[in-house]
Write a structure and sequence with these properties.
single chain, 301 residues, 9-stranded mixed beta sheet, 3-stranded antiparallel beta sheet, 14 strands
Length: 301
């Protein structure tokens, strides 16, 4: 099988174009957004949903907001990153990990990003741990999609943006979608609708500016890239990451179970163009104090 590398992509076979999609009624049920910082937002993920007419229900369990007992009134759920670890003893961390039984049981689309992926892995019985040599992934790093991953998206970015120092083992029965050199498990799927990704495709340029400024101490960790490398690599790899994220989210939300046997799976409405200025502004990074006190491996929104 021949691999082709095209403008920052891993491509095998013809590229599947999922957008623009056929016109459908815009979704009435919101996607549940779980955030871990007081002023954080869902970044590019939220921008994509907004452009596609997908409403969002934002909740922050860390600050006492409860999660629903069922996702009957939600289209799916995205669990974002944070400076804490899935191994932390905090009540809200355990609460969120246990709560993931709800979307898994109901087979609703579930996406975990960085910390969210580690929480999903932990719920499924897998280990979350630091690298044996103490290495971190902070900056752009190469990933390789597996054949299972190419079944989800035919074009994957060759490099992705990372900010973590803990990794995960592949949960028993899960499918490895993408792998890396420092931390092997970069993306995985479990069951019909649950996905975890270790990297940060949702990060905007403005977020990167704040992360590398307020979290500059992390740039000295073994394996981390310098701040200069972060910004030198962004124009090389970001277009492929942005395209992959849109394609992946379209695939992900289509996993929503049909309301009746006669109804087709949910698909996103055609998405409006997103000006770059909006993408750079509509996101917030972790606060300075949160980054300074972080002890876990997953860093993010």
């Amino acid at each position: 099988m021949l691999w082709l590398k095209v403008t920052g992509f891993h491509v095998i076979g013809p590229i599947r174009r999922t957008r623009p999609l056929p016109r459908h009624t815009r979704m009435s049920k919101p996607v549940l957004i779980i955030l871990h910082q007081e002023h954080s937002t869902p970044g590019r993920v939220g921008q994509h949903f907004k452009a596609c007419g997908v409403p969002m229900d934002v909740r922050r369990p860390r600050f006492g907001e409860r999660l629903p007992e069922t996702l009957a009134e939600h289209a799916g759920v995205v669990v974002f990153g944070g400076p804490m670890s899935a191994n932390d003893p905090d009540d809200f961390v355990r609460y969120e990990i246990d709560w993931l039984a709800v979307p898994l049981r109901e087979q609703k689309p579930l996406l975990g990003i960085c910390l969210g992926a580690q929480m999903l892995a932990k719920h499924l019985g897998a280990r979350v741990s630091v690298h044996p040599e103490g290495k971190a992934e902070i900056g752009y790093y190469a990933i390789r999609p597996t054949m299972a991953g190419l079944g989800v998206c035919t074009a994957w970015p060759s490099y992705v943006y990372q900010w973590h120092r803990e990794g995960i083992d592949l949960p028993h029965g899960a499918r490895l979608l993408a792998e890396g050199d420092i931390f092997e498990v970069q993306a995985f799927a479990d069951g019909p609708a649950a996905y975890g990704i270790q990297f940060h495709a949702e990060v905007t340029h403005a977020m990167m500016c704040r992360w590398t400024t307020r979290g500059h101490e992390r740039l000295s960790l073994p394996g981390a890239k310098s701040r200069l490398e972060h910004f030198a690599d962004r124009p090389v790899y970001d277009a492929a990451i942005r395209a992959w994220l849109a394609d992946f989210l379209d695939h992900w939300i289509a996993r929503a179970p049909a309301a009746s046997p006669s109804r087709a799976p949910t698909r996103l409405a055609p998405c409006a163009a997103q000006p770059r200025a909006v993408a750079d502004v509509d996101a917030c990074s972790p606060s300075n104090s949160s980054l300074a006190q972080a002890t876990g491996g997953a860093e993010g929104i």
